[in-house]
Design brief:
Blueprint: H1 13-17, H2 23-30, H3 37-61, H4 69-78
Protein name: Histone H2A
Organism: Chinchilla lanigera (Long-tailed chinchilla)
GO molecular function: DNA binding; protein heterodimerization activity; structural constituent of chromatin
Length: 86
Amino acid sequence: MDSGEDKARAVSRSQRAGLQFPVGRIHRHLKTRTTSHGRVGAAAAYLTAEVLELAGNASKDLRVKCITPRHLNQVFLYSNNEPTKK
């Protein structure tokens, strides 16, 4: 018998999906039966997509390939598109 030499290394769901946030942990929390678990998942997916799109645009403007925390700061600090109340 082999001692596990040919056994493939476990790959997390986050790595398979190419994401940085913990898919398994979020899935575990969403499995608890609440009335809003579907809405929470949809909202998290929507917000993540929006933030990554804006951060990707910021990194593209700077002609870099990786999104860094600096790009996220640019999204939230410098692009306030909502009108202020007077």
